Amino acid sequence: MEANKTILQVKYARVVELFSRLSGLELEDALGFFYNSETYMLMSEGVADMHCRSDEYLADELMLELAEKK
Fold first, then answer.
1. Which of 68, 7, 6, 12 is nearest to 43 (CA)?
2. Roughly how many angstroms between the first and final C-alpha of the chain, as a whole number?
3. Where do the H-state alpha helices sit in the chain?
4. Span 11-32, mean pLDDT?
5. Backbone Cα Rg of the chain
6. How far, in Å, CA of 64 to CA of 11, rounded?
7. What was the pLDDT predicted at 37?
8. Cα distance between residue 66 and residue 48, in whole Å
9. Predicted model pTM
10. Environment class of residue 3 by beta-carbon count within 10 Å: exposed (0-12), middle (13-18) or buried (19+)?
11. What's the average model confidence in pLDDT over 6-12?
12. How far is CA 29 from CA 5, 6, 11, 21, 55, in A?
């Protein structure tokens, strides 16, 4: 399924903001990490309907990716 692009952009913004708060990263750094993440790739390509998951779930996935990179 392909999500509406505008709705998807709003979803990205909410997830990045939550990820920034959880990780302690500055918003700009969190945004950069997000756009280079596996989570973003899966969301943008509609794989497993990742874009339908909750903001909290997606932010947690980003936290897991961040922990793997440290």
1. 12
2. 33
3. 5-23, 27-35, 38-45, 55-69
4. 98
5. 11
6. 19
7. 97
8. 21
9. 0.91
10. middle
11. 93
12. 23, 22, 18, 12, 18
Distances (CA, A) of 68 to 37, 52, 62: 11, 24, 10
Question: Both tokens of residue 2?
Answer: 């392909």
Structure tokens at 15: 């997830």
Mean pLDDT over 17-42 rounds to 97
Angle between helices 27-35 and 5-23 (to 10 degrees): 120
Q: How far apart are CA 17 and CA 55, in angstroms?
A: 10
Residue showing tokens 């990205």: 12
How far apart CA 13 and CA 2 sit, in angstroms, is 18
Take residue 55 and report the two structure tokens written for it.
Answer: 């903001």
Comparing CA positions, the residue from 10, 11, 25 lying closest to residue 58 is 11
Per-residue pLDDT at 25 exceeds 80: yes
